[in-house]
Amino acid sequence: MPNTLLIGKDLPSCLEMAEALSASGRKVFTPAKSSTELTKFESENIFACTWNKSSAVSAHAMLINAETTLQNIDEVIFYFDSNYFCTQFETDRTEEISAGTDTMFTSFLFAANELIKRMDQKQEKILVSFFVKEYPSKAEIAASKTAGTVPAASIISAAQAGFASIAEDFASVTESRSFLSVLLAKCPYSNELYKSEKLLADWLASSMDSIHNAKNHQNVKQALCWNKAGSKVQTGFSLFK
Questions:
Q1: CA–CA distance, 47 with 39 (Å, rounded to integer)
Q2: Residue 228 exposed, middle or buried by CB count within 10 Å (0-12, 13-18, 19+)
Q3: Which tens digits make up the pLDDT trace of 75-97?
């Protein structure tokens, strides 16, 4: 089964998703908040390292660490959980902007850029997924007049849009890289799977398995298509034949 690098929330915050991915037969590597979390879950085939989210060098080191630990990386999941980030950055205080930018944008951009460089060096089959768990912005709440829902801070809404842009730009390079397949997926706030990390992970695992087992390699148009969590993923892919 595939070896998976999960990037988004650090251990132990991502544990539920990591455990569900592991239960699907995968070995999972993911960043951890501190060195005390590094070996806690190895018995569940969940491995970890620490990293500096504001450093491209650290992002590269994380990739190499994951390769060394897992022997190779078959899948990468970039996971933007807006609902989780709302608990970390509740307001648009000036003193939180730098940390928020590093956590929700810079880290993903550095990791994606370093991954492309590493893929081009190795030229090996890989599936890269970008998954965003959406949360309504101030403008969306105002337009819908939804009562009782606290809107996301502006930095979260901006970072969510930025993550989608990183994802689409990454997917656009598949045309010149036959070894690369990309899955773009969103989970709207109203989605029935929204509150369950396990169900979302199960859907992701099943969708990635479908891509691995598909007969034809995707074209750019297919790579740029956003899939809705819980729905049947659009395939035109070919991996690990």
A1: 7
A2: middle
A3: 999 999 999 999 999 888 888 89
